[in-house]
Protein 1
Amino acid sequence: MPFVRKIVNSNVLAGIIDIPEALQNKRVEVIIFSLDDNSTTVSQIGKTKKAKGFLDKYKNTALIEKESAAWAEAATGKHEHR
């Protein structure tokens, strides 16, 4: 059975699943594999949370305006003497 295994900081998962206090701010292992039991429903698994937009509270709108030119400025500064 194919699966995905990844080690991440538990803070990344905080908006997606409930992280027990003992695991907060720690590296955790995430394992994803398919569920073979077709009778299990979403209500049995629990409320599914979406990852989309969960970092929205950390955005800095002042920096977003600068993003479109950031790469060009960095490349020019690095390679202007060549």
Protein 2
Amino acid sequence: MTEGVTSEIPSDIPSDAGVLRLDHVAVAVRDVRAGAALYGDALGGRFLFGGDNDHQGIRVAQFALPGGMKIELISPLRDDAPVARFLERRGEGVHHLTLLVEDVEVAVARLRGLDYEVVDVNLDSPHWREAFVRPRSAFGALLQLADTTKRWDEPAASGITLDDVLAGRVVFTEDERAVLRENC
């Protein structure tokens, strides 16, 4: 939808997208260790969780900054990972904004109904369901819409450290848990 706000929204489109809050800003980095030095050490961010998503080919580390804002660092583990292509084309920087919604299917229906381009809808996991609004539909920003059954604003209870993540000893399981690789 590029013509501005529509005053008459068809009745078959949900009344709103059910946005709960901005969950985090994801920053693409070539090296999570370098990003952690800024967002953790220099800015006082508290490490929350992280690990490797072998399916997507990325390493993730998330930090809570003072005041509650969260930053997620993502870096590629292999050359064919989408974030590797992003870094090649655009360099390091903001990759996406994640909005938590009540129900991702409702949010997708609303946005598609209003002619926004929504892609990569993944409803496979009950713990993290997501979809993306393409940057050309979102004024240059990649938006991730997600609903979840888990708390992502608290440190992982498993005792996993940032050093474990940086060393590649942590992997996300199918049910979105970060575990030490030997415990998979």
